[in-house]
Amino acid sequence: MDLHHPFVAEFPGHVEAIRSLKTADGRFCAWFEEYHTLDDKICRIEEDVEYASDQQIDELKFKRAKLKDALYAAVQKQESVASRAVAVR
User: Distance between CA atoms of 86 and 62, rounded to whole angstroms?
Assistant: First the structure.
């Protein structure tokens, strides 16, 4: 069972918007990196490579979920802007 939750794998229909944001938006890129760093840490804990208390793992998962929400909101906004730009043409 794969414990990792890569953002692109979670939202495969949004790959182009994610790529665009990673190259054009520094804040998105920082969140994206932080999300994957947290995901790796959580996986190491769940695989018993590292130790964390239940409270610590819950806090990490909560932070990862908040980042995922922020990243997805940015993706939706990017796609909305892109679709309006296409509609105007």
Answer: 36
What pLDDT, on the 0 to 100 scale, is given for residue 5?
Answer: 87
Report the distance separating Cα 70 and Cα 26, nearest Å: 14
Cβ-Cβ contacts under 8 Å for 79 (sequence gap 6 or more): 14, 17
Q: Judging by beta carbons within 10 Å of its beta carbon (0-12, 13-18, 19+), is residue 48 exposed, middle or buried? A: exposed
Task: Please give the model's pTM, rounded to 2 decimal places.
Answer: 0.88
CB burial class (10 A; 0-12, 13-18, 19+) of residue 43?
middle
Q: CA angle, 82 as apex, 81 and 86 as ends, to 5°?
A: 115
Chain centroid to Cα 26, Å, comes to 14
Question: Hey, where are the domains in the chain?
Answer: 35-83
Q: Residue 85: enclosing H or E segment and its boundaries?
A: helix 54-88
